[in-house]
Batch of 3 targets.
Target 1
Amino acid sequence: MGTLFDATFFDTMIASVAVGSLYALIALGYTMVYGILKFINFAHSDVFVLGAWTAFTTTTALIAWTGLSAAGAPWWLGPIVLGVAMVVCGVTAFCIERFAYRPLRKAPRLNVLITAIGVSLLLQNFNQLPPAPGLARTATVSFPFGPTPKTMPELLPDVILNESIIATGTLGGGERRGQVLLDRAVTVLPGRTYRLDVTRQTEAGPVVARFNLNNPPVGEVQAGTPLVTQPLRPPAEMQGLAYVLVQVPAVTIRLVDVAIVGTAAVLMVGLLWLVFRTRLGAAMRAVSFSIENAALMGVNVNFVISFTFVLGACLAAAAGFLYPIKYPSLQQPASDVWVLLGLKAFVAAVVGGIGNIRGAVLGGFLIAFIEFFGETYLSATIGSGLQDIYVFTTLILVLLLRPAGLLGTPVREKV
Amino acid sequence: MSDHTQANHTADHAPGPQPGATDVARALLRAEGIGISFGGLKAVQGLSLAVPPGGLDGLIGPNGAGKTTAFNLLTGVYRAQTGSITLDGRRIDGLRPHQIAKAGMARTFQNIRLFGNLSVLDNVRLGAHVRGRHTLVGTLFRTPAYIAQERAILARARQLLGVFNLLSRADEPAKSLPYGDQRRLEIARALATEPKLLLLDEPAAGMNPQEKRDLARTIQRLRREFGVGVLLIEHDMGLVMDICERITVLDHGEVICHGVPAHVQNDPKVIEAYLGEPG
Amino acid sequence: MSAIHELTQKNRPGVGLTVAHTAALVGLVLGTGAVMQWVVGPAAGIYPATILRQIGIVAIAAVSLNIVNGYTGQFSIGHAGFVAIGAYAGGAVSFYANSLGWVGAYDPAGLLTPGHAVMLAGAAIGAGAAGAAGYMVGLPSLRLRGDYLAIVTLGFGEIVRVLFQQTQSQVFDPQAARALPISGWWPPPLGGAQGFSSVIPYGELFWIYAALALTVVWCYRLKFSSSGRAFLSIREDEIAARAMGVNLTRYKVRAFVLAAALAGLGGAFYAHLNLAVQPKDAGFQKSFELIIIVVLGGLGSISGVLLAAFGLGGLTEWLRQPTSVWPAALVALALVGVVQAVRRDIDSRARGRAMGRALLVIGVLTGLFEGLRAFAAWQGFKLDDIRIVLYALALISVMLLRPQGLLGTSELWLVPGQLMRRKAKAAAAPSLRTAGPADPAAAPATGVGGMGGGVTEAGGDEGWP
Ligand SMILES: Nc1ncnc2c1ncn2[C@@H]1O[C@H](COP(=O)(O)OP(=O)(O)OP(=O)(O)O)[C@@H](O)[C@H]1O
Ligand SMILES: [Mg+2]
């Protein structure tokens, strides 16, 4: 048992929770729409992609217009970007519902499903058209977003929250390249990794370079003992620079992951509150129980349905905002990467029991766990790169064993 | 037309057994204590039925009594949670609906379930499907067996449509028929499966008195010509009392009375269950 | 002994009819291939012939998908998975047969070389493998309805894609292939993420269109057979179908197996035309393309799907090189005029209305195409770049304006009969007629699941017996 809960396990766990909360955010949108209209909104994952690209475009535009440095964005940039993404996605989802789905509300479900596929294709492929000539077109900002992948500027600094600083001071140059001398004694524990953050002054301001220590001697290390770092810089260049010696934790907790999980958690709790504690939520549940009956009871069905779409889109926009913070390379909107991501979120909704809000959250985490733990622990025996197979096999198994998903209630057709 | 059909089903027993018998020695259909509940609702409970070969029995009861659910249990749409069902001496509970159809039980539906976009003719032809063998390869090469069977199905379907006076509308989509015709088409389709027992779920619903009289005559004729037993759910008491030989009354999922029409008509429990409705 | 059985035994025909039907099948298959190879192909030129070959393959896949989505009413969105299985199997068989030295080098002049025999064997293997996969996908369809089945088929396509990514790298060197021990063939050397390439170009017009003809004839005979009625009944009402004795599992699985096998057949030719297969070919984007065709043509209509396949193929070409659409518009207008003039099912006022409507539709479409062309020329972009955007818009518009697709469930050859006969019957039963899908004057906005009022099969028009 001792070896089971090792660093690998916890790293996998953290990745699963972070990505799982993204899946859950997207899955909620799928599930809410299904709960009310009983059809799969295939275009939902494209709203998520739209969110990601809007976040990217807004960030680059804000950075360009305000003249901020791309490296250290101020903290208030994030909420603004999130807000813009939510508004754009919400308006898009409102229009989709109003103009594509509402006219088909009485049509067979298959028609709506096909329309949703059409809307999905439209969003994907429209969004990756080259920028329209009339619209703003700078080197970084464009709409539509164009067919090339981009890199998201760093909105959050990559900070490891649980690392501990064990020494600070000024470096002395070693004898050889890659060698540095610390100006004070430190204690090096066996089996841990250490990092040296070195600050260099340049014209643009201080720049921090990060070096790992290679096999430092274990135990009490006296000041002036030569330590080996990765980059082989001339000793003269290193001498006199300010350093911070960091003990890297066995399991790293990054600010990005905490921000993702925190934002997602706040949104999910907010959603649960909205759905289960407010009048509007009661109206949503009533509509999902029966559109006709809800209408008879005086619920404004059209409003509730539009609201549900917008709500789902806002959650997807949040996921789209959070995703590139963790994985900054942004694929073009019609890329398979996105489709697969959206698909997994959708699988999460189905596995959890589509139509069931708690099920979507459960499914999101479950799918991420299966994906990451499968890849970590099964790749040696079965082969690597099979995450998708695990996910879809889970889907098929769950559907065969519990056709309505884990938390879904099966409906029996009355004869 | 159907000398052979009749011979098939009624070779070893004369049609039209003693009316009035509350139980029959050799039942075509025998259900013993079947029941099902949905959540907490006991939709049918301890229902026992016995329909003799070629018999015409009724199943009545107020709305929501569990009559349709009983049909669903008999035809395998729902699996009975208790009890046993035998058809012609063979256990059929636990079989799947298509197996039960093959075993010789066919039904109509309270809320008509025709194949709306298929032609009237195709609806009946589909009924005959269960008595044939169908391979994809035969379809591609049109083997002699396939051709013969396809002709047989066509002939049989036309014959049945003739019985129900629907031949002139054979090529129309089923959903374009008027309501009464749709009900009769459903019966024709069920008959095409060559059942030993036909379950009719409110066949007269939505019909006018004339149509109802015609329907009663048709049902009698089916028994004569096809030797088929009938179990009938119907709200029209006049019709039921006229043609049924035995009647079972359900209320709240339980049998409250069973017997010949005259007996049922005068049972106080039945009158009470119907609360003022003419019993 | 059932009545049907006895009737069947009594009227057993000789083999003559079967021989005639089979001869018709063979004649159609070879005839279509021959006409395409020696008449249409040379007349069209090399590039159009290649386009025709592509469309032929797409048509095979779409017509086969129609068995599941159109006839049986199940919604499969993983069909490209079956196509890819056939493509990999077919491509690998002929590639490795060649590099192992079983057959000689490709001969561009031959149509029935030993290489072609191997290619056909590969196509059969591909169809078999795809059919087996279809069996596995079909099984869960008993427990899963509608959306859920769609998801499972989608998952299936993705699994196929990932599995092909996991194969070993292709063995290009004949020497190395010959030296490969038996164990070296597992996992199969299908090229992994790079895909399988250098397939030998056996995909001639003749073979592709022979395969298409086989697919179409089979689907046609199926649609009007007892098995076909079982499929259709499942689409119409599963509960009633079950109660009438249709074994749902068997027929759903049958539909999947047949559709998958035919898709696999098409896939094998795809490999020999495209000369390369990629794991991506199994992905849902390819499946969506097939679905678009089936939906545009009309779920359940063979001729509708063929029209849509060729129409979309033509549209793709037009988008590549847009030319003026006026001539086509005039031809269409003339055609509609003739049809409206001769149809007997409506009176002159309705005829006028129908004509006006047709004029409007053609006018709008012409304006649309011309506008697009002008806009693209003005803005200086290629229409081809926005192809999928236009398809998506078309799909949505069709769902909103004509949900039953081009032909609904009807067939092209049934339309004249409907136009000619309707009136006489309408007189007999005035209030009960519903408009057929071919009647532009009154296209009912019913859905895909229960489409247009038209008869699915008008008696006597089915080509039977
Ligand atoms: N699938 C089901 N799930 C839950 N409850 C059901 C189901 N089917 C039937 N019921 C309930 O079982 C009871 C009996 O219904 P059933 O349809 O059998 O009545 P019935 O006697 O046919 O009535 P009617 O004369 O109105 O047709 C009703 O209360 C009904 O709501
Ligand atoms: Mg009932």
Target 2
Amino acid sequence: MLKLSDVDVFYGKVHALKSVSMHVEEGELVTLIGANGAGKSTTLKTISGMLRPQKGSIFFQGERIDGLTSEKIVNRRIAHCPEGRRVFPDMSVRENLEMGAYVRKNKTSIRSDLEMVFELFPILKERSQQDASCLSGGEQQMLAIGRALMLQPLLIMFDEPSLGLAPIMVEKVVEVIAELNRRGTTILLVEQNADMALRLSKRAYVLETGRIGIEGLSKDLLQNEHVQKAYLGG
Amino acid sequence: MVEFFQHVVNGLMIGGIYALMGIGLTLIFGIMNVVNFSHGEFYMLGAFGVYTLFTMLGLPYLAALLLTGIIFWFFGSIIERLILRPLQHQAIDVSMLATIGLSIFLSNLALIIWDPTPKDIGMPFPLIGVEIGPITLTPIRVFIFVAAMLLILGSHLFLRYNRFGKAIRATFQDREAAALMGVNTGLVNLVTFSWGTAIAAIAGGLLGPIFQVFPTMGTIVSSKSFAVVIAGGLGNFPGAILSGLLLGVAESLGAGYVSSGYRDAIAFILIIVVLIVRPTGLLGKARRLG
Ligand SMILES: Nc1ncnc2c1ncn2[C@@H]1O[C@H](COP(=O)(O)OP(=O)(O)OP(=O)(O)O)[C@@H](O)[C@H]1O
Ligand SMILES: [Mg+2]
């Protein structure tokens, strides 16, 4: 469904991604792990059109999408739930969710998705008129996830959704991601919490200073000595 | 007491114009990260636009005003596309220098087209004052205030409830996240700048009949608009409205009770005081829109 081939990305002179190749098949939950500054966020930003690759190609559902504006990419129903939540602080919870459906036209199906998100995260319904800045960190993460769902996405990319959350909130996030995947949404998950991510996913890639170091089945990576040392604290 | 209210009413009229200038400047800064030094020149050109269309060509005043707004909407779009867009990834001082250059160019262009002698637009409305209790209002002043308030209210409602207006607010709050929602942030820049330019031109066309029109008239208004924006909190929309109205009233009272010679100094006293007492602006919060 999604396929990156030999993608190179630079920030000025900084070579952030070096010949990255990876793929995500329809219905899969794939994890991308890596240390700080390895290039995980850069990979997601490149897929969603925030950054342009200097080399290589990105295909989504058989069509080339690198070089398209993020607006066009969103229109192909690729949602990107960014690192640090990035909700709109001075917009209400409801307005934030509506922004998630910005490119969609069908009002009735938007409304039913809004109900679906409220069902998934009842707290958002309770707080729908409040500004997003009034929410706790965990609630903001729910909002960011809900906002991504409002696109009715074919593929969702999560960038460190567990970052800075209390354990109980992490659990909730994990539950939601697993549930979304069960319902058929394809997911690309970026995490520093490698243990959690590898248990959740079927396949995984390890990014090491801009290169894909290891790839394979998550259960094999959990046993891999190097992965254990570097990412699982063992 | 009657005199006091008369000053307040007069001050609100000018203040409405400052608020109009301020919201454009503050939105352009908040959304595009551009400090627009040509905002006062757009105001001046708007006054000349109305002078040309109404006084010279004899169009009805309202039509002249409306047409001026439309012309400067397109003028703003051209400036955004040709000058600001190519600079959008540069440091903020690059676009600042560009708008300073543009302001010098525009005031000299006006000098060539309309020559330096001050022009009178002439009165579009009857001069008879309407007495409301002890306060006298001339129709032009009422019109200026009402028009300014309607434009501000319209902008507010647009930002609050319109789909694209919400996209502008989203871009203002987090440009990258807005792009991830599929907002065309380039279009947001274009519309913001065009709208700010049109509003500034209309402000000039509104106030033109009360004062004289000349090529350097934008300079002082420009400085005052900056004062309004800084006092209101950079990028703060309600703050700009509040401080615009406040400045108008303060000027009018200062000129009335102290000395009219101090009128233009009041804006700067106001920013100094506000910055000392509330460094983030009147409404406290640094950034807020709609
Ligand atoms: N805007 C930028 N300008 C210059 N260099 C950048 C920029 N953003 C990221 N980088 C660099 O690119 C590399 C990859 O950064 P990236 O944010 O993709 O890492 P990451 O894997 O997401 O890290 P983290 O786990 O900390 O989020 C880093 O070396 C970083 O310093
Ligand atoms: Mg990151």
Target 3
Amino acid sequence: MRLADLLNFAWQVLRGSVSRTLLILLAMGIGVAAVVMVTALGEGARLYVASQFGALGTNLIIVLPGRSETSGAMPGVLIGKTPRSLTLEDALALKRSHAIRRFAPLIIGAGDVRTGARSRETPVLGSTSELMDIRSMELAQGVFLPPGDPRHSQPVCVIGSKVASELFGSRPALGEWVRIGDRRFRVIGILAPQGQSLGFNTNEIVIVPLAAAQALFNTESLFRILIEAKSREQIVAAQADVEEIVRLRHEGERDITVITQDAVLATFDRILRALTLTVASIAAISLAVAGILIMNVMLIAVTQRRREIGLLKALGATGAQIRLAFFTEAMLLALGGAAAGLVVGELGRSIAVQLFPAIPFQAPWWALVAAPATAMLTAVLFTLAPARRAARLDPVQALSRR
Amino acid sequence: MIRLTGIARTFLVGGEEVHALRTVDLEIAHGEYLSIMGPSGSGKSTLLNIIGLLDRPDAGSYELDRKNVTALSDDELARVRREKIGFVFQFFHLVPRLTAVQNIELPMILAGIDPAERKPRLARLLAEYGLEERAGHRPDQLSGGQCQRVAIARAMSMGPTVILADEPTGNLDRHTGQEVLSVLERVHQNGGTLVIVTHDPEIGARATRRLRMLDGAVVGDDSG
Ligand SMILES: Nc1ncnc2c1ncn2[C@@H]1O[C@H](COP(=O)(O)OP(=O)(O)O)[C@@H](O)[C@H]1O
Ligand SMILES: [Mg+2]
């Protein structure tokens, strides 16, 4: 039997019972669409998280005061008790490590930023010139904090674009003075809009020199030290150096937590991948249900088409040809269902993209391959028994009216 | 040429043995026109099915065209059936979703014949059996006589040497039956072997050789 004839024969069967065909296509389609959509959601979430971490900068190591045993939690949500604070001196001691390219100590507080009559409450970050490179910040105008000894500061600040427009309207902000608390700062730079980073919207922050922040908030304790390792390979060495250097300074106490972006990202990656795989497998169960439906329909078909099968045998069909006819029918159903499912899944994905433009919903390639393949496989598996039964039909009995 | 030697076929019905055929010996020469008559249940269909390789005997041997086919595998039997034997049934057995011409095409499709070769053959068959007008119709749009003509054209499509017809007129009125019979008899006129099982003595009498069966045995063989 030729392939074209086989396909045509199966096609005639499917066309001959439209409602049956549509029902199976629907079941198969739902299964495939479910897998595609669910994995698109999972993968979208994974890519979103990865991109958020990527915005942190490369080869990033974050040091925070307090010991936490949780290795892979998100920075900022970590609450450890602080037996000893992390100081600028601790940070400066890190210069000894050869694995560290640069570092930026960080102090964070909320400040009332004023200019003339306008005032606004914003997060105020105290840091050093290195922050810009470590966090891959970009400036829309002006310059960043000047380099120099972090123990001394000049009265300058860099502000987010939204802060600039709210305080100065359409007037140029560069070179103007703002008042934070009881101190005055000259605006020397305006950050380019960059979105979320380290839990802050960079449009809405003000960055001042570290020493100024220490005075403003009357604290010596650092909120974080951000460190950039010399390379990806050096991250582990840098992490070890940090722990050792600070431990020696803290009389042997291991009272800091060192988080590497790599580790956090890897953890998230693992969790989200596992989650995606799990929900995808659950969705795949609907494919098995579709398979069972196919088996039932095929078994009914074998009974209904007994005489036809007997006839085909009388006309010289071999058992293999009968089996092949059934498999072709099942494959066509699976292919049709898979195609419909992929289309519906893609539709669902594009709707999700419309609703949440920030998240890159995209079914991973393995799901796009696995879902139709699973549909095909279940179709074949669940047709095995009916096809075998059909091929074994005794033609004499099948043709008789008994 | 068909040679049956000591053919027996027994069915088990509810634990009881039914001897559908008891040692049948039969030789049918190439080109013969044979009718098989006998009461219902005498084994006519069983004999025809065994000749047509649809059924296997429990005992005896069967030689078709000088080749022993008793021990062939199912697939080999299917191949022989496809090439040498054409079946015509009482209930036509057309595939309802296929058109007349698609039904006629089935054996050639199963044999894997090139579509380019099938086309002219189909045209010839349609013309020969007066079905050109009806080629695109489905069985439910055809009369009984037309259905049986489609079935005969289908049986002839592979150019078989033997045509086996099991009560081919049993489901047709008298006039149509005669018509269908004369179509079948063309096989004989063209030199093919024709075996017809029938209840109708008038039809049976037209064959050049008439077999009578009773209780699974051939009790009369009349070539007069
Ligand atoms: N598949 C079968 N299973 C059981 N008994 C059968 C089967 N086929 C035929 N028989 C029995 O064998 C005998 C001969 O049947 P059959 O050849 O169909 O007779 P006929 O065609 O002459 O009416 C009958 O008694 C019938 O009941
Ligand atoms: Mg009978």
